């Protein structure tokens, strides 16, 4: 388990190492070609030090990597702001966002797909402004109105990934408790349920409800997010949220376990069509 910035450096380094190997170069040969000391290449590949986007470009050119999507993904992981139009807008909120949250947003903006299990609240990408404010205020009791405003702005700005070209592919399984828990009052919940129904009708959003009648399930251990990337599964990562931090799981066995868990939850959950009816039923008080 790694914290966000570390896991991103390690994933970038591992991909660069694989590309160097595919190019038939040793780390020493690669270093000589770009005019560096071998230790710099080693530190980059092991993720023990950061790397500038310009250095990544130089390595990719040296390794003969021409795939524009792969180049773009690796450059964004290195901190470049040219990620397909999804610029690092969140840097303007550095004063109010903890580093782990900034890194989560960064991964979210780069991913091609996101699978999430939510057991307590509506996923941030599907929250209405009122709901987002109520959830944030409850989670950060006593925070100033100014900081609360900024955090809600960030939550809403994150939703642009669903309107991007191409959009993020979102698959979400919601425990019934998410729909039953009254956040912000009846009016807020009514509008939030309507928002879920509208979002579920988007072609790139798959929304399923896991009803109480499903009984105990593998998701009782808590919510999680799986980020996937279109060009390489080696960059996929699982994110677990805690009260004061987030943990990032990158091992293949962890990814396999959480992928299997999500697939099992999807099987036990209502179908997307039945889930829409279920959400509408909760709105009607059923």
TrEMBL record:
Residues 16-70 form the HTH cro/C1-type domain. It holds the Pfam family HTH_31. Gene3D superfamilies: lambda repressor-like DNA-binding domains. It comes from the Bacteria. The lineage of its organism: Bacteria, Bacillati, Actinomycetota, Actinomycetes, Kitasatosporales. InterPro entries: Cro/C1-type_HTH, DUF5753, Lambda_DNA-bd_dom_sf. This is Helix-turn-helix transcriptional regulator.
